[in-house]
Amino acid sequence: MKKSYALLITILVVVVLAFTFGKGYLSRLDTSDRLLKQKLSREELSDSLSKTYEQMLGDNNTDLQARFDSLRNESDALIYSLESQLDLYISQEYDPLLQQNSSGDTDVTASDDARADLTGMIVTPSEYEIYIAYLERIKDFPKDLSSYEKRVEVGEVKKKLMKQFSLSRKDLDRVLLKLRQRSKDTEKSS
Fold first, then answer.
1. CA-based nearest residue to 174, from 182, 184, 185, 186
2. DSSP for the chain?
3. What's the pLDDT score for residue 109?
4. What's the pLDDT score for residue 66?
5. For 109-156, how does the pLDDT look when each residue is reduced to its tens digit (9 = 90+)?
6. By the number of CB atoms within 10 A of the CB, which of 59, 74, 115, 120 ranks highest?
7. CA of 138: how far to CAs of 65, 77, 117, 127, 143, in Å?
8. Spatial CB neighbours of 138, under 8 Å, sequence gap ≥ 6
9. d(Cα 117, Cα 170) in Å, to the nearest integer?
10. Residue 16 pLDDT level (bands cut at 50, 70, 90)
11. Distance separating alpha carbons of residues 167 and 176, to the nearest angstrom
């Protein structure tokens, strides 16, 4: 009888171990299956979003280009309007195209060659910022300044702008001439 009890206990231990092993194995399979389903679901979602984005991009590309063009035209109109309003405050003495050096001759940067070089160039937002800052500071000058005082004040404004925007004198003059020439060309074509 001892042999039959030992055999029965051994069989029960093997069944319990087999059941435990089987349950662990099925649990691992279930976890693996869930992870695989989550991964597939993420990939499907990613693919779906990618296809949707590509479709939207293709559909809206012309619409986006039209919106961009519209915004660019509006910003150009706004900048032109601001320039025009500020130009009303500038007298001939402050015009970078007409500025003269201390000897009375027209400044070298205002030569016809320099003007010709500047006409075809694209204007950047930072150049607009510099030009608008120049115009705003010039418009604050008192109207009763002498010619010498005006030259001194313009020189001070230029020094402040060179320091503020980290520019050389030549670069500042180039920006001012470029935008003033553009403004004058726009007025002529209107």
1. 182
2. -HHHHHHHHHHHHHHHHHHHHHHHHHHHHHHHHHHHHHHHHHHHHHHHHHHHHHHHHHHHHHHHHHHHHHHHHHHHHHHHHHHHHHHHH--GGG-TTT-B-TTSSBPGGGSHHHHHHHHTPPPPHHHHHHHHHHHHHHHTS-TT--HHHHHHHHHHHHHHHHHHHT--HHHHHHHHHHHHHHHHHHHHH-
3. 43
4. 80
5. 444 444 445 445 677 778 888 888 888 888 878 878 888 888 888 899
6. 115
7. 38, 22, 25, 17, 10
8. 89, 90, 94, 154, 157
9. 14
10. very high
11. 12
pLDDT digits (tens, 9 = 90+) for 83-115: 666 665 555 555 555 554 444 443 444 444 444
CA distance 96 to 109: 9
What are the tokens at 60?
């809206």
Q: Which two tokens stand for residue 78?
A: 């706004």
Residues 120, 116: Cα–Cα separation, whole Å: 8
Any idea how long the chain is?
190
**Residue 146 near residue 93 (C-beta atoms within 8 A):** no
Give tens-digit pLDDT for 33-52: 888 888 888 888 888 888 88
Amino acid at 160: K
